[in-house]
Every structure is written in structure tokens, then in C-alpha cells.
Amino acid sequence: MMALLKRIFLHNFGLKLLSLFLAAGLWLMIARDEQPAEVALRAPIVFQNVPSHLEISSESIPEAQIRIRGPERIIRQLQPNEIHAEIDLGDAKPGERTYDLNTQEVRHPREVRVVQIVPSQLHLSFDNRLTREVQIHPSVSVDIAAGEQIVKCVLDPPSIRITGPQQHVEKVEAASTDTVDAKGVNGTAVFTTNAFVADPLVQVVDSASIRVTVTVQKSRPGIAH
User: Fold this and answer.
1) What angle do CA 217, 218, 221 make, to 5 degrees?
2) Which residues are 113's β-sheet partners?
3) How does pLDDT run across 38-96, given as a tens digit for each residue?
């Protein structure tokens, strides 16, 4: 019996020893990767079920810093789109409201767990959506020192539609064009540009280009205007 066991044990002893070392090394690699690790990630806040008639009127919405813990192997393989916070706005109304950000609002791989969320609350302002039409004011640059003056400026179209939170849209008196450089023009020239509204919460609905027809006249020497 002892001879049989000895023969079985010593048969291909080198290969068996090599297999043992490989198995031990593989186990050590897996064990190391399974050690817990912790990391803080910047994650977006996704708003779901936003009422169609409402606009979020908060001027800034922070990202969430989510600290997660899990196996090191999983932590290292995480993709940015795998973790985000969700807030259901289905019951939102005009005014202000504070929402809690807790682990139930965070979507993440099941192999990890959420340790901390910063901020833990999110304060939002809501307003009714308003869409209206406003005039466009042209911005044209000429060389006054060279005696150039604008005698006529025509916009096509002359107005655009804007939309956004009601209180913000109501304060917009007019949209503006990007500055058109008409320096050196003597007569009529046509420029293509865009219109914008300074308030970042107000959007331009009609984003088509604006045609600006400018007539510039140069003063004659010795003639005052």
C-alpha cells in the first residue's frame, strides 16, 4: 500500500509541483482582487418624469459625489455611466422643493454598495414653461474713427421665439445677434449670424441663422453729421 501511494505521489512530481504553484498564484491574484476597495465618483443626477408644463428654474444643479465600496476588481472596471442618482419629479409643482438623495436613489452594479452621497439633499426651484416671441436687436461694429456710420440695418427674421421658466422669459426684452463686423463696408452688405439670449435658462426655439443687411455710409471730409 505504501509503495502504491509513493508511486502515485512521485509520478510526474515536477508537473504536480508546477500545478500547485500555478494554482496558488492564481488564488493569490483572485484573493487580492477580491479585497475591498473604496472610491468617490462624480455622478450625474438624472431627473425622471418631469411634467411637460414645468421647467427647472434653479440656476445651478450640482453633480452628486457618490462614495462606493466593493471588490477591488469590480471598482477598477467601473464605467462612468454605471453609477448615477435618479430623482422622480412626477409630483413637482411651481415653487421650491427639497429632495433627499439616499442609497435608494442611486443606480449602481449590485457587486458594490453606496457608502455616502454628497450632497445628501437637493433643493430645486420649478416654474411654469412659457414660450413667446421677442424682437432681435442687431449688434454691428463699424469704424467710427474712419467716419463710418450705419444708416440702415434690416434683420430677417426680425424676431425669434424663446422658451424657459416663466419668470425668466418674461424678463427678456429682446434677443441680440452676435456682433457683425461691418468695418470697411461702404454701401450695403449682407451678413449671416445667430441670435442669443443672455439668460442661460432661456432657450432660443428658432435656431435658424439671421440675415443682417447693413448699409454703411462714410462721412465726407469737412462735412459734419
Assistant:
1) 145
2) 69
3) 888 899 999 999 999 999 999 888 889 999 999 988 888 888 788 999 999 999 999 99
Q: In the Cβ-directed half-sphere of 130, how many Cα atoms lie within 13 Å?
A: 18
Q: All 3 cell numbers of residue 132?
A: 413667446
- Which DSSP category does 105 fall into? G
Per residue in 156-183, pLDDT (tens digit) is 999 999 999 999 999 999 999 999 999 9
CATH of 129-218, one of 2.170.120.40, 3.40.50.11810, 3.40.640.10, 2.60.120.10: 2.170.120.40
* Sequence-separated (6 or more) residues with CB below 8 Å from residue 116: 40, 66, 67
Total residues found in the chain within this entry: 225
Residue 200 grid coordinates: 442661460
Q: Which three cell numbers stand for residue 224?
A: 459734419
178 contacts 137 by C-beta, under 8 angstroms: no
- Residue 133's contacts (CB-CB under 8 Å, 6 or more residues apart) are 159, 160, 161, 162
Angle (CA) 146-149-155 rounded to 5° is: 135
Partners of 86 in beta bridges: 46
Candidate CATH numbers 3.40.50.620, 3.40.50.1980, 3.40.50.2000, 2.170.120.30; the one for domain 36-119? 2.170.120.30
Domain boundaries, the chain: 36-119, 129-218
